[in-house]
Design brief:
Elements (H helix, E strand, L loop, with lengths): L11 H80 L1 E2 L2 E2 L8 E4 L4 H9 L3 E6 L2 E5 L7
Parallel strand pairs: 3-4
Antiparallel strand pairs: 1-2, 4-5
Length: 146
């Protein structure tokens, strides 16, 4: 069995002193908590600003890359168009016909096609013109008049 010591008799003054001591401790904790909250808020604001700056820089970089890729795509398209127009101009033939001058026609020309695009176009009667090795190949067997 544990022995217990008798507690000193509480007086108004001792109780008041304990209450005052507890109030001081609570105020100290509140001040510490407020300082920590302010420090966290300042860090969060700095991180938010840094994140915003990083995002703006990333957005600029992405936009620049998009413009560059768009330019490359346009350039590749012009290269393909020039290649195929020059090839047709040299042979002056298309769809089994010989021509005195080159007119516009319905067809797709590219260095590479997705398989579905090529097959669907041929089935719909659209000419496919593509490079195979060093040669230009024209698939115009099912060419339709539109």
């Amino acid at each position: 069995m544990r022995s217990t010591k008798p507690l000193p008799k509480a007086t108004f003054e001792s109780t008041w002193a304990l209450i005052q001591e507890n109030i001081k401790a609570i105020k100290a904790m509140q001040e510490r908590d407020e300082k920590e909250r302010i420090a966290w808020q300042e860090r969060a604001e700095k991180e938010s600003i840094a994140l915003k700056e990083w995002k703006e820089q990333s957005d600029k970089s992405i936009k620049a890359m998009q413009q560059e890729l768009g330019g490359v795509s346009n350039s590749n398209g012009k290269v393909a168009e020039t290649y195929f127009v020059n090839s047709i101009t040299n042979s002056m033939q298309f769809a089994g016909q010989e021509y005195d001058e080159i007119d516009h026609y319905l067809g797709l020309a590219a260095f590479h096609f997705e398989e579905n695009t090529e097959n669907d176009s041929i089935e719909q009667g659209i000419a496919i013109i593509k490079q195979v090795g060093e040669n230009m190949v024209i698939y115009d067997e099912h060419l339709k008049v539109f």
